[in-house]
Amino acid sequence: MNSFLALRDQDLAAFTGERRTGIRKRVERELRTAEFIASIVELFGPVMADTVSVLSGGHSMQAEESYRTFSESEDDDPFGEPPARPPQEIVR
Asked: How do the domains of the chain map onto residue ranges?
């Protein structure tokens, strides 16, 4: 076999190996990104859809959780009555 043909085969094999490694890394990185985005959508999508449904007047998917609406309370304060003011000191 010609030494130039052997060198060409070696260069081709090295290039193919490097290219495979680069492609593998890029595909793995893109898959990790896609899995991350899919996880976010899978975890928060139903919760956000349920929240939008409840805010628009529908019923929640999970019956054990309670959602406060504006019609259930008279004011926006979630803690009830405002705290009493501290007594004023008498200055003599």
From this structure: 3-57
